[in-house]
């Protein structure tokens, strides 16, 4: 399988530096430009399947890549982690207004859960289930996944046989694409945050 990974384009939440997981925010004008840039990079590639999360920002990024009429799968498992009551809040405000809960989460993010949100264990299990599904359904195929920073970094770590906690080693830039080739269960990073056109 050739797995193309694309992070959604810029949103206002990205610009503001706030936690944004399950909030359904749209792309900024810059985000739309980034989506068009990725569409140009991947122009001419015939994907056997394309996936996006349920959130608008991924679908707005995916649409220029596959065209107005191109089919794609909406997969809830690709949604970003849900930050609960902390959605669209800045870390400085949380440190001041919910200091105990926020400190506990920062100190033990593997186990602590944002109020009303999703814990890391559940999030990682959800994303790993998506990965297993992709590998089972699309062996030998070319697949596009447009998702979120947390989801993509976790997918990458697990594909490479690393612990889920190793996701922090991978950062996905907006306006770029990455490619991981998987053969008989062995994954190789072919490109990461590539902004060049694929020949």
From TrEMBL:
CDD domains: HP_PGM_like. It is an enzyme of class 3 (hydrolase). Substrate binds at residues 7-14, 57. Pfam families: His_Phos_1. Transmembrane segments: none annotated. Coiled coil: none annotated. This is Alpha-ribazole phosphatase. The lineage of its organism: Bacteria, Pseudomonadati, Pseudomonadota, Gammaproteobacteria, Enterobacterales. The gene is cobC2.
């Amino acid at each position: 399988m050739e797995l193309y990974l694309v992070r959604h384009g810029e949103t206002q939440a990205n610009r503001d530096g706030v936690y944004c997981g399950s909030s359904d925010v749209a792309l900024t004008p810059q985000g739309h430009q980034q989506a068009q840039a990725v569409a140009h990079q991947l122009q001419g590639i015939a994907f056997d399947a394309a996936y996006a999360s349920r959130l608008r920002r991924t679908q707005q990024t995916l649409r220029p890549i596959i065209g107005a009429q191109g089919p794609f799968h909406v997969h809830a498992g690709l949604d970003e982690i849900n930050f609960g009551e902390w959605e669209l809040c800045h870390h400085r405000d949380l440190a001041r207004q919910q200091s105990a809960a926020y400190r506990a989460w920062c100190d033990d993010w593997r186990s602590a859960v944002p109020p009303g949100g999703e814990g890391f264990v559940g999030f990682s299990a959800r994303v790993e289930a998506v990965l297993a599904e992709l590998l089972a359904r699309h062996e030998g195929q070319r697949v596009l996944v447009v998702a979120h920073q947390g989801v993509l970094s976790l997918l990458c770590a697990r594909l490479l046989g690393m612990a889920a906690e190793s996701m922090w080693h991978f950062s996905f830039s907006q306006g770029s694409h990455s490619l991981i080739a998987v053969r008989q269960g062995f994954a190789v990073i072919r490109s990461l945050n590539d902004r060049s056109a694929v020949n």
